[in-house]
Amino acid sequence: MMVTINSALKATVCVACVFATPAANAQAPALTDAAGSYRITSPSSIQFSIGQVGGGGGIAGNFAKFSGGFRIDGANIERSSVEFTLYPESVRARERRIEDFLRSSAVFDAANFQTVTFRSTSVRQTGPDTATVEGALTARGKTRKERFAVTLTDWDRRSISFTIRGSIRRSPYGMDVGTPIYSNVVQFDMKITGRRR
Amino acid sequence: MLRNSETGFGLVTIVLHWTIALLIFALVLSGFVMQRVEIDPAPQFTLYQWHKSFGFTALGLALLRATWWLVEHNPSPLPSLCPLERRASRVTHDTLTVLAIAVPLAGWAVASTSTLDIPSFYFNVMVIPHLPLAKSEASEDFWTSVHALLAYVTLALAAIHAAAALYHHFMRRDAVLTRMLGSGAPSSGMGVRGAQKRNDTVVGRK
Q1: Residue A15 region, left (φ>0) first, then alpha (ψ -120 to 50), else beta?
Q2: What is the pLDDT of residues A89-124, one digit of tens each?
């Protein structure tokens, strides 16, 4: 969820960047063209991975169910915003035992905390098609400031797509089970498409 | 002191015996607890990792114990044991020595064949590589059964072993148990003979 929100924010930033330097990306829309409200739709995806000691595959998976939206401010990209909700119950991993463990009280505690949410607090353009989105990530009842890097990947009049990446430390959310065998840092890799409302 | 004598066990044998005994007891207990479905998954995960670390420790000590058993002179069985008891105790001791190695090896095979592919991070200090076995659900299930079965056999034999030791100590009042306790064992074994010798001496003087 966090990742998605960040993606949206980054997407917003990207749009702004493109507007500033149109040559950077042939597909980059003018900010005024991209301005508007978007709903996150398919084909969006939220993937995550956690490294393990001694190398090897670690834990990787994705979330099948999430929702959210973002607003690109045509006048000031930095006033754009993103909101995202992710449902940990929908986590998918390479086998059922891992999914059950991730849903359990050891990690997401999906029975007591049905959602993970991200609400942006600031958007900063970092390049022609990149941005940084900061916001409040809430998981397991704990809220912390997190940051995601957003890159614009595609755009047309009806939709806009971003990749959003971020590294989240899981221990502050009470999800440090398995450390140090499994890394405390979760890598998020999201591909987010927003369709104009 | 460190080495075995003709009649008693040395410190190396005694320390290895009781350390391995304690580890086996703790490992069987944790093995029971960690498989219970109602346990919270976070402590359960941690318990599995402790079980693996202590299991590898048991394997190392059991290998040391078996090597010591082979290269070191072993005290003779107490003269009070009848031939059947000697054979039974010999078979039990040999089997326990082998099982103390086989059970953790089978546990290592479980960790190695599991599709979960969880690294064995020995006391969070060093990674112990998996055995070169193919990972599959069937293989993991097979080794889990072998591990459990061998552990149950070990538990049963250890119970018989302990019961026999207590029987010898309390009913037969011989040195079978005390000589594995260090101070009591060799001296008590020697004690009987020493007492006899002293008596002989006394008689002789008379």
Answers
A1: alpha
A2: 999 999 999 999 999 999 999 999 999 999 999 999
Inform me whether the C-beta atom of residue B30 falls under 8 Å from chain A C-beta atoms. Answer: no
pTM for this entry: 0.83
* Strand duo A91-93 + A81-86: pairing: unpaired
Judged by a CB distance cut-off of 8 A, whether residue B125 touches chain A is: no
Nearest CA in chain B to A175: B42
- Whether B43 is in a domain gets the answer yes
With contact defined as beta carbons under 8 Å apart, do A180 and A149 qualify?
Answer: no
Tokens linked to B62 = 């059991």
| ipTM of the complex, rounded to two decimals | 0.81
CA of A99: which chain B residue's CA is closest?
A: B116
Chain A: closest CA distance from residue B76 (Å): 47
Q: Which of B115, B116, B119 has the CB atom closest to A53's CB atom?
A: B119
Domain-embedded: residue B100: yes
DSSP-derived secondary structure for B97-112: HHHHHHHHHHHHHHHH
Determine contact: B121 vs chain A, CB below 8 A.
Answer: yes
Domains of chain A, each with CATH number or no CATH: 2-196 (2.40.128.110)
CA distance B39 to chain A (A): 11
Tally the domains of chain B: 1
Show the domain range for B91: 11-105+146-192
